[in-house]
Amino acid sequence: MHTETLHDPIEVDAHFGPRGIRPMGFVWQGRRRVVRHVTCAWSERDGALIHRYFAVSDDDAVYALRFDARALRWHLMSVALGA
What we know:
It contains no helices and 7 strands. By secondary structure, it is mostly beta strands. The protein is globular. The protein starts with a strand and ends with a strand.
């Protein structure tokens, strides 16, 4: 498995509900990725900011997504190919 560290801004389709945030899909490198599984979710504090992270997978790879609630922005932090 090859892991690539990134910090790419992406657009994410996500469900925001009483049980929290669930990424449903995103576009990266011009291709729509459908999230099949959310394998892990966690939060990290950076001063006053809280970043929410999600490890998600599709049929091709495992991705680490980060959501910044203050700026309402998503970033793709890493991708592990060959999942």
